[in-house]
Each structure stands twice: as structure tokens, then as C-alpha cells.
Amino acid sequence: MTSGIQVIAPGIPVIQEQFGLSAAQVGLLTSVFLFPSMFSALGAGALADRFGVRSVFTGSMLLFAAGGALSMVAPDLAVLLLARAVQGTAFGAVLSLSVAVIGLVVPTGAAAARGQSRRIIAMAVAEAVAPALGGVLIAVAWWAPFGVTLLAAPAAVLAWLWLPSARPPRRSRGQATRAVRESPALVGVQVLAAARFVTKYAVLTYVAVLGVTGLGMSPAAVGLALGVASTLAAVSAALTERLAHRWTSPQLIGGSLATTTASMVALAFAPSPAVLVAALLLFGLQDGVYGVAHNVLVTEMAPPEARSTYTGLTGTVRNVGKFTAPLLFGAATLVLTVGQSFLVLAAASAAASTVLRRVARAHGERVPLRDG
Predict the structure, then answer these.
(1) Per residue, what are the HEC states of the chain?
(2) Who wins on pLDDT, 358 or 9?
(3) Residue 173 confidence class, pLDDT cut points 50, 70, 90
(4) What pLDDT sits at residue 371?
(5) pLDDT for res 72
(6) Is 223 a residue whose pLDDT tops 90?
(7) Is pLDDT at 279 greater than 50 in this prediction?
(8) How many CB atoms lie within 10 A of CB 364?
(9) Which residue in 364, 346, 239 sits closest to 290, CA to CA?
């Protein structure tokens, strides 16, 4: 699923030339992909709770492959954007349902952390390999990188063979939605989902501005620092299973929020490139833990009869955070400096910690009952 952006990114200039796109139109290649993913996660979750995860999950993967095939033969920009929208719809569904699938097997505890960490590591590896692969394939033809997305079709066949075929029991219309709406600490869990991605995508978008413009770093140096931070995130995600033996998911998220607040303050007042890099590495370390712990929290707090719907709602909130983070941070820079805007992120992380207290109380009441 990550190939929908990472494989395509190196070839965007070639695609721009092929279709005669302006600089503004180039942005549509990504935004048209991401926009439907903000909403498809919730819809896919509701369908999965009604008709079964296997059919919706594999169907979405086949839809992703179909969008890739249409991209390869697109005769003009309109068809290409339609294909990108189709793929983006499937992208949001599959990423959300992949969390739900793990939750169906192991909803809580260290085993759940192991499953969720492997998911994040697999995505991190794909995100590291895909751009290099796309850079090689674009030398073949403008459409060649889209061919990688066709791998979703055989992956769908494997998913169909491996996932359980049991159809969920029949429920009245709206029962899953009602169960999600009445679940404890629903708003708090979603606030924590938004907090991670608003901060992360704001950092990814604006840390280069801070480093290059404010501290005189080269773009290559900032890129290297971001790459190392992503690697540390994958390493810390792999270690989260061990941490989960000692701490609950809310406790792990609390540590991540405290670390995020400290790293945002360091970015805001960074007097040198060394401090900026150290803050980025600290941010990367907590991001892996936060990602795993929050996925586990979602499967722990979700109603068993509506787990996919709950996970889909969370996926939608996360995607909205990704989409809006650069816009929100950019709006802040209209009245503040870039450094001061990072202080706003620090304050937001600190505020999320107060929300976490309520979530932790609800979690403490819910998880022992489920384990029992």
C-alpha cells in the first residue's frame, strides 16, 4: 500500500513532463490520493463488521491494483487523477483494516504489541526501499513505477487464503456504529490519534525550513537526519513488545507525549544544527513506541462486535491529521515564526497528556474485564 506514494514520488518530474503539468497540478497527484483515504477507512470498517474482514480487506487490495493498472494506461490527466483517487480510497481502507486484523487475533498485551510493531516495521522498510525502486523504474517509462502497485493483486489472493472466512453474526443496522459511539473514552482515543499525526506531518513538512533557512543546514543534511530518525522509529517499534511487558499502552503513550513535548521545545529553541538533529532523533525514538502503543490501545478499547468500525474511525482521524497538519502549521506561521510554531506543537502535546489521563482510567476498567 505504501507504494501508492513512495514508489511514485521519484518519477513525478517525468510524469509532469509526460502530461504537461504545471507545478500546481503536480500537487494533485498526491492530494487526490490522500483525500479519499480520510473517509474510506471508516466506511471500510463498517463494511467489515457487517460482511467480514476478509472480503472487504482483499477487495480493497484488488481495487488498489486496479487503480494502478488504470494509471499505467491513463491517456490524460483526468483519467490519471481518477485512478489515483481509486487507489487512495483503497489505501485508507487497507491501512486501517490491517490494524483491525491484528486486533482480531490479539487485541491486548505484549503479543498485540508484537503484531503491531511488525506492521510498522514492514511499512518502514517499504518506505525506505520504495523510492529507490521507483527511481530505477522511471528510467524504463513514466508508467513503470505504477506497475509495482499491481503486486497488491497477488497479495490479495494470499490474504484471502490466510484470513478467517467466518462471517460476523447478523446485527441490526447501525448496531456497530452505536457500539462505537457508546464505547468508553472514544473522543480521548481519537484525540491521541490526531495528536501523533498532526505533530509528525508538521515536523516532516517544516523541519527542513527551520534547519535550512534558520540554521544554515544543507537540504541533504536535513534529509539524512530525517532518515536516521525514521530508522530509530522502526527500532523503537521493534522494542515496544518488551516495553509492553512492563507498561500498559496508555503509559507508553504518556512517555511518548512527554518526549514529543521535549523534542518540540528543543526544535523551537535550537541554537545549532546539532541540537536540531538531536531533537529529531529523540522524536523518532518516541514515534515508533507511540505508533505501536496507540494501535494496541485502539484494539483494546474497541467493542469486540465493532472492532473494524472503531479502527476505521481511528484511521479516518489519523488521515485527517496527516492531511491538515501542514495547513495548520502553515497557518500558525502567518502570525508566529517557525520556531514559535513548534512551541505550539509542544503545547498541544502537553495538552494531549491531560486527555490521556481520562483514557487511562477507562482503559484500566476495560482491559482486565477483556483479559478475564
Answers:
(1) CHHHCCCCHHHHHHHHHHHCCCHHHHCHHHHHHHHHHHHHHHHHHHHHHHHCHHHHHHHHHHHHHHHHHHHHCCCCHHHHHHHHHHHHHHHHHHHHHHHHHHHHHCCCHHHHHHHHHHHHHHHHHHHHHHHHHHHHHCCCCCCHHHHHHHHHHHHHHHHHHHCCCCCCCCCCCCHHHHHHHCCCCHHHHHHHHHHHHHHHHHHHHHHHHHHHHHHCCCHHHHHHHHHHHHHHHHHHHHHHHHHHCCCCHHHHHHHHHHHHHHHHHHHHCCCCHHHHHHHHHHHHHHHHHHHHHHHHHHHHHCCHHHHHHHHHHHHHHHHHHHHHHHHHHHHHCCCCCHHHHHHHHHHHHHHHHHHHHHHHHHHHHHHHHHHC
(2) 358
(3) low
(4) 45
(5) 96
(6) no
(7) yes
(8) 11
(9) 239
What the block records as the C-alpha cell of 192 is: 491521541
Q: Quote the cell numbers at residue 17.
A: 513532463
The whole-number average pLDDT for the span 1-20 is: 88
Averaged pLDDT for residues 115-134: 86
What per-residue confidence (pLDDT) applies to 166? 67
Q: Look at residue 26 in the predicted model and tell me its pLDDT.
A: 85
Q: What is the pLDDT of residue 269?
A: 95
Burial 70-91 (b: 16+ CB within 10 A, else e): bbbebeebeebbebbbbbbbbb
Separation of alpha carbons 98 and 101, rounded Å: 5
Per residue in 298-328, pLDDT (tens digit) is: 999 999 888 899 999 999 999 888 888 888 8
Contact 57/109 with Cβ under 8 angstroms? no
Q: How far apart are the first and last CA of the chain?
A: 36
Q: Which long-range contacts (CB under 8 A, 24 or more apart) does 21-24 make?
A: 21/77
Taking the C-alpha atoms of residue 338 and residue 329, their distance in angstroms, rounded to an integer, is 9
